Amino acid sequence: MIATSLRCLVTGAGRGIGRGIAHDLISAGHQVVLTARTESELLESAAGAENAYVITADVTTNATEIVRKATELLGGLDVLVLNAGEGISSKFEKTSDELWNSQIALNLTAPFQMMRAALPAMKAQEFGRIVVVASSAGKIGAPYIAAYTAAKHGVLGLVRSVAAENPDCGVTVNAVCPGYVDTPMTQRSVANVVARTGASEESVIAALVAHEPNRRLLTVQEVSNAVLRLINGNSNGTAVDLPERESNA
Ligand SMILES: NC(=O)c1ccc[n+]([C@@H]2O[C@H](COP(=O)([O-])OP(=O)(O)OC[C@H]3O[C@@H](n4cnc5c(N)ncnc54)[C@H](OP(=O)(O)O)[C@@H]3O)[C@@H](O)[C@H]2O)c1
């Protein structure tokens, strides 16, 4: 049976999907550490809740230290939501080593380091829930986003491998794979295309969602619901597609 008050760490909790997940965990009465680089956004996300704590840090340089500090603040760690991420687009031939390395560092290496830091104590207490916010870009290729796509494919491999290596120990490791979500990250991408092409915002969004099953942006709430289902359930090694089907692929 899952405890009524879980000790949770949510990365990228300053805005967008991470803010929504942190908000839902706080509202459910769990103890939540929110982390990102922008303190003002974290404080807005925490909204003065007594069961919320803030760590301002960069996951690409402080991954292990963030897990250590959160564990200390909470007196242990039950839930790790690895959501911090960003997709920077670039034509493949123009993708610099710097862009490649930064996309891998943020979307793949930081989740690896945080999982590695959190897992031993979760196994020792025979309970843990690790959920990665990956992307549909972790399962299919798309133009102008090779580094992000490679990192998100990699993080799904990481999830499946860590889950396979740690069966039946009370710890589950899963991912959610959303299509386009209505968040500041998507708003930034749309604004870039509008600035570059002069197209209207509506037409850019319509083009983004043209191949999505429901032809609209997902809401943060839909993604958060899927993450909370994984935290409350027992699935292990799954990569949940949003919208639509759940798959074990
Ligand atoms: N939006 C979509 O359509 C979509 C679709 C599929 C998957 N996703 C994934 O969902 C996750 C959240 O995306 P979002 O749309 O909510 O993005 P967002 O609105 O830009 O929020 C991203 C969060 O991550 C934090 N972050 C970024 N770089 C960081 C770093 N180096 N260290 C610590 N924190 C960092 C940001 O805060 P600071 O900048 O203050 O650090 C912010 O709180 C990402 O992993 C993204 O790949 C998004």
TrEMBL record:
Gene3D superfamilies for this protein: NAD(P)-binding Rossmann-like Domain
Q: Which InterPro entries match?
A: NAD(P)-bd_dom_sf, Sc_DH/Rdtase_CS, SDR, SDR_fam
An example of a Pfam family matching this protein is adh_short
Question: What are the BP-aspect GO terms?
Answer: monocarboxylic acid metabolic process
Q: Which PANTHER family match?
A: 3-OXOACYL-(ACYL-CARRIER-PROTEIN) REDUCTASE, 3-OXOACYL-[ACYL-CARRIER-PROTEIN] REDUCTASE FABG
In the record, the note on similarity to other proteins reads:
Belongs to the short-chain dehydrogenases/reductases (SDR) family.
* Protein name, per record: Unannotated protein
Q: What species is this protein from?
A: freshwater metagenome
